[in-house]
Each structure stands twice: as C-alpha cells, then as structure tokens.
C-alpha cells in the first residue's frame, strides 16, 4: 500500500486555535497510509501579482512544501459564513502564477470547526467552491463539521472526546482511501 504525504492547512492564526488543536490531533490519528505536517500560512504577505517578479521567501517556502505534498486537508473556522482571509490568501498564493498552481489535481478534504452547533457549515461549503476551481478532487463523505469544538480538549490541548476522535479516525481512513483512488497509477 502507498503512503501519501498530506499537507495540513490551518485557517486560524490564534495562539490557542481550536483548528490547530484539531490538526495536531489529526497528526496523532493518521492511519499508516498517510503522513502529515502542518504547513504554516501566517507569514504569507497578501497576494499581489507585482511581487511575482521576486516572490517573497515565504511564498517560495509555502509553494515548495505544497509541491512536495500529495494531498491536502484544510482545517478552518467559520468567519461570517466563509473562511478567514488568511486561508483565502494562502489559496491565492498557491494558485499563482497562472499555470503553476500547487493545488492542481491534489486530493483534498475539508474539516470545519465552530464553538457553536453548526460546525462551520458555511465555511466548509464556501471553501469547497474554491477547491472545484483549483481542480482539487474533494472527498464528499464523510463530511466533517466539528461543532462544540471548545469542549473537546483538556487544558494541555489534548482531545478528550472519544467519539470525536473515533469519527476523525474514520474520516482519515476514508481520506486515505480517497487519496489512493485518485492518485493510484
């Protein structure tokens, strides 16, 4: 069985981010067919085509890390029924320059979080719209909305909710199988 390198993109910059806690939990729960690491997006200057003449080092680092990944999992909060600006900027930086998108053809999954009960439903679906344009085949099932995310972790940031851990484990296995179907020669 193949092992796939998965980029985890966290759409929150907050120091005590629930999305980062989810991402760190995913790393612990990854099945053997997947390896993963968080790719940082907080240092990316806003996309401006004028900067392509001499791209910022953070753009180059980000693009190189994504180019070496075979699949992507986005973990995002919901801001005003959409994704945070920092995540949209990362998507824009990765999609440029034209014809050199680092996203093209990479299998994707979306995990949205919220302290409320809807689990970031609006952000999840809004992000999926962009992924269609980026030509990222996105796993449809299971859909992953994590509501009540503020109650899932202990003070050290470790996930304590067993049913959420089990659900995320099953979602990761499904994503591994999805990635294998998309990328298998």
Topology at a glance:
Layout: E1 4-10, H1 18-29, E2 34-38, H2 57-67, E3 71-77, H3 85-95, E4 108-113, H4 121-133, E5 144-146, H5 162-183
Explain the overall architecture:
With 185 residues, this protein is an alpha/beta fold. It has a single domain (4-183), classed as 3-Layer(aba) Sandwich (Rossmann fold). It has five helices and five strands, in the order βαβαβαβαβα. The longest helix has 22 residues, at 162-183. The protein starts with a strand and ends with a helix. The mean pLDDT is 96.
> What's the helix-strand series?
EHEHEHEHEH
The CA-CA distance between the termini, in Å, is 12 Å
Measured as a percent range, the helix fraction is 25-40%
Give the strand content: 15-25%
CATH topology-level name: Rossmann fold
Number of domains: 1
At a glance:
37% of the residues lie in helices and 15% in strands.
Question: What are the defining features of this structure?
Answer:
single chain; 185 residues; alpha/beta; Rossmann fold; 5-stranded parallel beta sheet; 5 strands; 37% helix; globular
